[in-house]
Amino acid sequence: MSDLVAKYAALQALVKEIAEETADAHDDETVAQLAIDHHTVVRQFESIGNQRILEVSDRDAHKAVGCVTVTEFLQTKLRITQPKKRLQAVQALEPMHAMTGEKLPPACPNTARELAAGTIGPDHVHAVLDVLKKIPSAVDVEQRARAEEVLAEFATTLTPKEIGAAGVRILAHLDPDGRLTDDRDRARSRKLNLGCQDSQLMSKLIATLDPITRALFDVVLAKWAAPGMNNPDDDQSPNGDHADADPQLLKDAADGGPSIAVSAQPLTRCATMRRPCRKARSSVLCSEVTCVCSKHARCRFSARSAVFQTQ
Questions:
Q1: Dihedral angle sign, alpha carbons of residues 146, 84, 94, 125
Q2: What per-residue string of b and e applies to 294-310 under the rule 16 or more CB within 10 Å gives b?
Q3: Using an 8 Å Cβ cutoff, are 62 and 70 in contact?
């Protein structure tokens, strides 16, 4: 038996002994400190667990226990609820191997150090990583590293939700005018997750939309989730939950049917243009479009506002 295997066996025995003990004989201050110490150790073991997961991944050791992928190993053997987020944390906090074989330093060394010390937990780590993902690719390496250092320091005293609020200030400092964020950053961040149907056959939809998709979605909701649309008894506002939005829109889209712009009343949306539409001869009004001008291919988006109108 190797030293590491023996230590884990001794650890399991020690944990069993601790579980059988109570803090009844101690004063209140000691009881509170024991709870603090316990959760510090739990957070430290989160860091050690990341090392174990990386070792399994590097050696394809998951196949030895009947798992095809590392994700399957995390789900079935480690019983981790969100394996994707855990693997993202491993990639950010652990020294990965380069293509040539040497070990690279962690992408987030300060966050990794705080987790190993037990001063932050996995929720803090995910909050830090969520902010770092939003940093535009045009930001240089030094500023990105400084942002990670500051976030790791904040994480030792703030809650995960407060880290997100602090991240907003950091992002505003790195990109005050919003000019560094480009279409590549938005494409990297966009996502759409359609959940499984529940017992009531309802599905949860979670999405991060780019500006154009969001504008188009607003057009859809404004037309198809308006009060009384296909249902005279529907008095809900399109600014609400859109619970009664008619699914006929998706059927029409799938069948190649009529466009959403079939309302008797024109709908306006604020968007931006880089140059005027040459055929429409106007930088302010471009008819028969939602937010992307499908009729005039030369319409583009940029920084100044324009009004698009659908008929």
A1: positive
A2: eeeeebebeeeebebbb
A3: yes
Q: Which helix (H) or strand (E) holds 87?
A: helix 83-93
206: buried, middle or exposed (CB in 10 Å: 19+, 13-18, 0-12)?
Answer: exposed
Query: Residue-wise pLDDT tens for the chain (311 aa)?
Result: 579 999 999 999 999 999 999 999 999 999 999 999 999 999 999 999 999 999 999 999 999 999 999 999 999 999 999 999 999 999 999 999 888 888 899 999 999 999 999 999 999 999 999 999 999 989 999 999 999 999 999 999 999 999 999 999 999 999 888 788 888 888 888 888 999 999 999 999 999 988 888 888 888 888 777 776 666 666 665 555 554 455 565 556 555 555 544 444 444 555 555 554 444 444 443 333 334 443 333 343 333 333 344 43
CA 183 to chain centre: 17
The rounded Cα 112 to chain-centroid distance in angstroms is: 20
Q: What are phi and psi of 310, to 5 degrees?
A: -105, 145
CA 79, CA 49: separation in Å to the nearest integer?
A: 13
Residues contacting 118, CB < 8 A, separation 6+: 39, 40, 41, 42, 43, 44
- Distance separating alpha carbons of residues 244 and 234, to the nearest angstrom: 7
Look at residues 258, 247, 262 and name the one whose alpha carbon lies nearest to residue 203: 247
Side-chain-side CA neighbours of residue 237 (13 Å): 2
